[in-house]
Amino acid sequence: IVSVGCWWKLRKRWLVSWHGVHIKRITLISAQMSLLRGLDTLWGQLPLIVAHTQLTSFHVGLYQRAQTLVDVGIYSTSGQFTAVLYPILASRQDRSDFLREFTPLLLGLYSMFVFSASAYVAVMAPDIVAVILGPRWGAAAGPLSLIMIAISIVVVSQPAGIQLEARAIFKPRIISAVFAAVCLVLCSLLLVGNYGLMGIAIAAIISGIGMTTINIVAIARVLAIAPRNIVVWLLPSIVVAGSLAGVLDIIYSYFMYQVGSPVTRIMVMLVVAILVFIIMFRLSIGQRNRTLLSKYLTNEMPRSMVFIAKIMGLRAQRCDANSCK
User: Which residues lie below 8 Å from residue 99, measured CB to CB, with a gap of 6+?
Assistant: First the structure.
């Protein structure tokens, strides 16, 4: 019913799609999009396939449960943001000047969030597994930490991948996806003998780095973004995540052993992680980047967002009917 209703609303435009050239282009784009989605799905399934052929069913179960925990956490947070971001970026493909400035900022914000989340998960993985999966699945803590890092690296490239797809520039996306799949299989086969399940997770990190690098380089060339502008945003995220991991590891090792409940440890360390993140964010983001971020904040945004921005050291602009300042 919905499809028929949409067709009826667009029936005059629909007539154009029967033109041979139009049909050929739509078919080609659809095939490329389907191929990309298939390759993206394959990247998540290949570790399980390799584990099934090289290890036992128990190891397959460990990896699958660890990967499921990461998927639920990552895609229920950044995934919701990406769903909103896609139409926003797709509708502004004619504004290269805006995207040239906005893309490095997005890459930096994505990386700062997911890398910091990876640092927290890496430290708290044993307690997270104990609470969600139960104490019998304690061996999943190691793969969970590495899988979180691998998927976080891939998520960072989403602002680049979105724009490549919106511009129908599929070649670099397909190359990166094929490279990631092949690299994942080869590295897994090389590492699984010595490192077991951890070797497969390490292979996922290596392939994720390759995929993300190709996508970012491709969009940087398309939009003529200077590499320095991307590094300026990515470097603080690495500093923040590294500092967060170091502080959490020290606190967990020397103080948290006195807390008996894993749930309590998770909550206490989460509060500590948020405080450390805020402090490191304010210290690592330079004045130029802080000013650029503030430019996209206005007092018309929800009060909660304005309050959070203020805590992070950002200043929302005051807007009236004519201008913002």
Answer: 89, 92, 93, 163, 223
The CA distance from 272 to 268, in Å, is 6
Spatial separation of the C-alpha atoms in residues 177 and 210, rounded to whole Å? 9
Q: Does residue 316 contact residue 299 with C-beta atoms inside 8 Å?
A: yes
Cα–Cα distance, 144 to 207 (Å, whole number): 17
Residue 275, judged by CB atoms within 10 A of its CB (0-12, 13-18, 19+), counts as exposed
Residues 153 and 208: beta-carbon distance below 8 Å: yes
Local confidence pLDDT in tens for the 325 residues of the chain:
766 776 677 666 655 556 677 677 778 888 888 888 899 899 999 999 999 999 999 999 999 999 998 988 887 776 667 777 777 777 776 777 888 888 888 888 888 888 999 999 999 999 999 999 888 888 889 999 999 999 999 988 888 888 888 888 889 999 999 999 999 999 999 999 899 999 999 999 999 999 999 999 999 998 888 888 888 888 889 999 999 999 999 988 887 767 778 888 889 899 999 999 999 988 888 777 777 777 777 777 777 777 887 888 877 777 655 555 5
Q: CB of 312 within 8 A of CB of 282? A: yes
The one-letter amino acid at 20: G
Q: What is the identity of the amino acid at 151?
A: I
Contacts of 192 (CB under 8 A, 6+ apart): 50, 51, 54, 55, 199, 200
**Would you put residue 211 in left (φ > 0), alpha (ψ -120 to 50) or beta?**
alpha
CA 62 to chain centre: 23
Q: Are 55 and 192 in contact (CB under 8 A)?
A: yes
pTM of the predicted structure, to 2 decimals = 0.85
What's at 22, amino acid-wise? H
Task: Name which of 156, 126, 134, 144 is nearest 249 in CA terms.
Answer: 126
